[in-house]
């Protein structure tokens, strides 16, 4: 059985506890052993970190200490997957540029704030991460992000003349990184399309099952 760590906290406006509970349920249904934590000190637990196949951060803004961040970066570099959404992964620890480099992007604006209706478009209907999901509308925050040009983009939305990535994948050392900008609050995470994107992202990012 593969093992996942969900660490939630930070700004309460993103309902981190509720989102963490949704993600834990998704992962348990996929036969993961799930550890749910509300402290960044979990990243400094050497025994725990060495046992993981997937890390799911649900922590908006806040600060992280060097002794917490370095084991997180190292775990992913050594092959543990990481996957998350919205500000819980894409707007964490604003001063930590190496964390942002690992994620592949950083939130910078959401014009109109919450309640903007927009379309999320899948780029490749044959990609296992997006196949069968189809384009869909969401009424939520629309994230404008600074994005690493090296990421592989799987879904986008339109900002006038700019197509903004919504979901992407990348590598950090040996580890797989999956990010989706949807998920302002638990009701958006619970949308069938968002939930399915995250489920597939978790499975893609997690360390492969050893034969």
What does this structure look like?
Strands 2-1-3-4-11-10-9-6-7 form a 9-stranded mixed beta sheet, with helices on both faces. Strands 5-8 form a two-stranded antiparallel ribbon. It has a domain at 2-106 and 166-205: Class I glutamine amidotransferase (GATase) domain (Rossmann fold, 3-Layer(aba) Sandwich), CATH 3.40.50. The model has no long low-confidence stretch (mean pLDDT 97). The two termini are 12 Å apart. The protein is globular, with a radius of gyration of 16 Å. The longest helix is centred in the first third of the chain and has 14 residues, at 16-29. It contains 7 helices and 11 strands. It has 211 residues and is an alpha/beta fold. Helix 1 links the parallel strand 1 (2-10) and strand 2.
CATH superfamily of the domain at 2-106 and 166-205: Class I glutamine amidotransferase (GATase) domain
Strand content: 25-35%
- Let me know the largest β-sheet: 9 strands, mixed
- Separation of the first and last Cα atoms: 12 Å
Overall form: globular
Annotation, overall tally of beta strands = 11
Count helical runs. Answer: 7
Order of SSEs: EHEHEHEHHEEEEEEEHH
Low-confidence stretches: none
Class from helix and strand fractions: alpha/beta
CATH topology of the domain at 2-106 and 166-205: Rossmann fold
Kindly provide the radius of gyration, computed on alpha-carbon positions and rounded to a whole number of angstroms.
Answer: 16 Å
CATH class of the domain at 2-106 and 166-205: Alpha Beta
Mean of all residue-level pLDDT scores: 97
């Amino acid at each position: 059985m593969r093992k996942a760590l969900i660490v939630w906290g930070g700004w309460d406006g993103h309902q981190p506890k509720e989102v963490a509970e949704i993600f834990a349920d998704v992962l348990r249904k996929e036969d993961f052993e799930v550890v749910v934590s509300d402290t960044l000190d979990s990243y400094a637990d050497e025994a725990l970190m060495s046992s993981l196949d997937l890390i799911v951060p649900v922590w908006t803004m806040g600060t992280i200490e060097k002794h917490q961040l370095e084991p997180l970066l190292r775990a992913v570099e050594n092959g543990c997957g990481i996957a998350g959404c919205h500000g819980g992964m894409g707007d964490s620890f604003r001063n930590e540029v190496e964390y942002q480099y690992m994620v592949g992007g950083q939130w910078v604006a959401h014009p109109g704030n919450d309640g903007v209706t927009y379309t999320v478009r899948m780029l490749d209907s044959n990609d296992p991460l997006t196949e069968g999901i189809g384009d869909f509308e969401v009424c939520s925050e629309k994230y404008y992000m600074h994005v690493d040009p090296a990421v592989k983009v799987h879904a986008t939305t339109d900002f006038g003349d700019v197509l903004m990535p919504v979901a992407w994948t990348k590598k950090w050392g040996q580890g797989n990184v999956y990010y989706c900008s949807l998920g302002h609050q638990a009701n958006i995470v619970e949308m069938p399309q968002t939930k399915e994107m995250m489920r597939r992202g978790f499975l893609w990012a997690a360390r492969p099952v050893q034969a």
